[in-house]
Design brief:
Blueprint: E1 3-5, H1 15-19, E2 30-32, H2 40-46, H3 51-62, H4 70-80, E3 91-94, E4 100-103, H5 113-131, E5 135-140, H6 144-153, E6 159-166, H7 172-179, E7 186-191, H8 195-207, H9 209-214, E8 217-219, H10 225-242, E9 254-259, H11 264-274, E10 279-285, H12 290-297, E11 299-301, H13 322-329, H14 334-347, E12 349-351, H15 354-363, E13 364-368, H16 371-385, H17 391-402, E14 409-413, H18 421-426, H19 435-438, E15 448-450, H20 456-475
Parallel strand pairs: 4-14, 5-6, 5-8, 6-7, 7-15, 9-10, 9-14, 10-13
Antiparallel strand pairs: 1-2, 3-4, 11-12
Helix pairs in contact: 3-4, 3-10, 4-5, 5-6, 5-10, 6-7, 8-20, 10-11, 11-13, 16-17
Length: 483
């Protein structure tokens, strides 16, 4: 299994090469050269597996045993999930009115990103120890990615992590989950800008191929293929939990509703579908509705600006993983994707070719929810079930409550309501706060401010250079080039 760029301009790399990369050198995103196809017998056999067992089966399709032996892969995944609070790792809550909520938030930071990042952190450490190598991880976050990424690598000796958060645009809890981690290898920057603005210096550093290569700079955003790969598992788990029976002549369909920001999670769903899982996918967004407009009208274009909403982790205008979905649907046409994405980078506006838009709208349903819709879904779910939804999960519940369904439906819940107290209060409900989260407000914090007008990329360069020089001095040799 090798990985190629969605823009077709670079050679193939193996899993280790994709893992340690951010964007591909040509600006594209790494994807598997081929998507494995699963037959009915495999699906039936997998239907009785636990969630961690599904992750192991799926990862073994994309990570060759020559790179990571099967027993080592199994141990890494077990270790990744060892800090999760629920014995099943993920849990399906069956509520009234056919509302099935797949809780993906039982990890350390109460967000679904713990699932993929805990595994990715283990994969990184496996190769770093093997190669005696140091890397610098660069992450932009709209809320949950930063804390999940920090928890997956905190205290590790072979890597440093640099996280940019949009000051004042995350919830207080999300910010504290990052700034209270006082570790030598954790560097948090509080930037006075929005989620899309903090992506700019990150893209600039990755585009500087010499710098990124010299200092082994990599990404843990959903740019990283490893995160997409692990997330494929929860589509299979959702399907097996919600499908009535796999003994029918034709396997039953299940609709899966996916709250969407940067598009990594829905990309994993598209890959699961391509692998042969009989699912119907619905991408649901807040008022930042570029994906909804792309699905409905073929209009992949920026609105006037990012709107602050209750579902703050989805306040994103440039969902970069759409590139992966379009590549999948175009039949891996790197030339077309390169043309479309370069046009988008220049004008921030692309009209999809008619054939590609048709395939996209056949693959995905979509819906946009206002803050009023979100609050309404949160209230209704509480009144009917005494169950608190986070505002992102409520976007999916809004779709469920407003759209009748004839097949089983599963709504993915990306975060715990405990992280979004302001939204809970706005809905007129009482927050339920776990003690680990309450304790954050009394803890010491550490972060570096990035002011408007400052050259954020230059600040990051300086810190990365200093950290790397310190590591080199400690180990007594120069940083290795590449692998």
């Amino acid at each position: 299994m090798e990985y190629i760029s969605t823009r077709g301009g670079t050679g193939a790399v193996d899993f280790e090469g994709a893992l340690f990369s951010g964007y591909a050198p040509d600006g594209g995103l790494f994807m598997p050269q081929r998507i494995p196809s699963l037959d009915r017998d495999t699906l039936r056999r997998w239907s009785s597996l636990s969630y961690p067992e599904l992750v192991k089966e799926l990862c073994s399709l994309f990570v060759p045993a020559e790179l990571v032996p099967r027993n080592a892969l199994s141990e890494l995944i077990d270790k990744a999930f060892s800090r999760f609070r629920h014995k099943n790792i993920v849990h399906l809550s069956r509520l009234k009115d056919g509302l099935n909520i797949l809780e993906l938030w039982h990890g350390v930071t109460y967000a679904f990103k713990d699932l993929s990042l805990s595994c990715t952190g283990q994969f990184l450490q496996y190769f770093l120890e093997k190669r005696q190598k140091h890397v610098n991880i660069l992450v932009g976050t709209s809320g949950d990615t930063g804390s999940s990424a920090i928890e997956s690598v905190r205290g590790q000796k072979n890597l440093d992590i640099f996280v940019l958060l949009p000051k004042g645009l995350c919830t207080q809890i999300q910010e504290l989950q990052m700034t209270t981690v006082i570790e030598d290898n954790v560097h948090v920057f509080a930037a006075h800008g929005n989620s899309d603005e903090i992506d700019e210096p990150i893209k600039e550093l990755f585009a500087d191929v010499d710098f990124a290569g010299k200092y082994n700079v990599m990404s843990l955003n959903s740019v990283n293929w490893s995160r997409i790969m692990v997330q494929i598992a929860h589509y299979f788990y959702a399907y097996f939990q919600c499908a009535p029976s796999l003994d029918t002549t034709q396997l039953p369909m299940v609709e899966i509703v996916v709250p969407t920001g940067g598009g990594g999670n829905i990309t994993a769903g598209c890959i699961a579908q391509k692998m042969g899982l009989p699912i119907r996918l619905v991408t649901v967004v807040n008022s930042n509705d570029i994906i909804h407009r792309t699905v409905q009208q073929g209009d992949f274009s920026l609105a006037q600006g990012v709107k602050a909403t209750l579902a703050s982790a989805m306040d994103i205008q440039e969902p970069y993983n759409v590139e992966r979905i379009l590549w999948l649907l175009s039949g891996s046409d790197g030339r077309l994707i390169k043309t479309l994405m370069e046009q988008f980078n220049i004008s921030k506006r692309v009209k999809l070719p008619e054939d590609l838009h048709r395939k996209l709208s056949e693959t995905l349903g979509s819906c946009s929810a206002s803050d009023q819709d979100i609050v309404g879904a949160m209230r209704r779910c509480w009144e009917e079930n005494q169950y608190l939804l986070c505002p992102h999960s409520a976007v999916a519940a809004h779709y469920h409550y407003s759209q009748p369904h004839s097949i089983p439906r599963c709504c993915l819940a990306p975060a715990s309501a405990a992280k979004f107290q302001d939204a809970i209060l706005r809905a007129g409900l009482a927050p339920q706060i776990p003690p680990e989260i309450s304790a954050l407000t009394a803890m010491e914090t550490r972060s570096t401010p990035l002011a408007r007008g400052q050259d954020w990329a230059q600040v990051l360069r300086g810190r990365i250079e200093a950290v790397t020089q310190h590591w080199e001095a400690q180990v007594g040799h120069s940083a290795p080039q590449g692998r």
